[in-house]
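Here is a protein:
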Amino acid sequence: MLYQILKENLTDKRRKQAQQYDLATIIYVSIIAMLCGSIDMKQISIWMKKNIKRKEIKKLIGVDFIKAPSKSTISLMFKELDSDQLEKAFRQWVELQLKDKIKLTHLATDGKVMRGSSHKDKKAIEVLSLLLADIGVVIAHKQIVDKSNEIPAFQEMLKELDNSYIFTFDAMHTQKKL
């Protein structure tokens, strides 16, 4: 189900000659590698080399790999990936998972700095997440723009949701504009 959603939502911006591997397939297999404990591109690449030819993986995605992509290929795919498209796919998948479940009403929000995301003179990436507190599932993320804070990101996320939720958030969000 997630694989199909990725295929429908992700646009591959690479030139045709560079498309030896399908973008959605590599992102999907990378997610599986991360769920199996891989925490960086090197570990994802190693996991793929060890597991990509397993019959379970082939059955799961319906693709028979001749060889696994290199670490640099995987890194480039993630670098050129449109994060808004990936977020849209993620939200669709979460919505499908929660469809017809109990009525969930309590949303908690919090911003976090992504560990290991700072490089030399580049500031670390900050992300605002919305969590269904009833069951502990993250349903949305939004990257906080450089030289900003959680407030504008939270205001944008509020516009995308309906008014049926009860929100829990930091004191910084208790402003008249919200």
User: Anything to note?
Assistant: The helical segments are 2-9, 23-35, 41-51, 55-61, 71-80, 83-98, 150-160. The mean pLDDT is 83. The chain has two domains: 2-80, 102-173. Residues 2-80 form one domain.
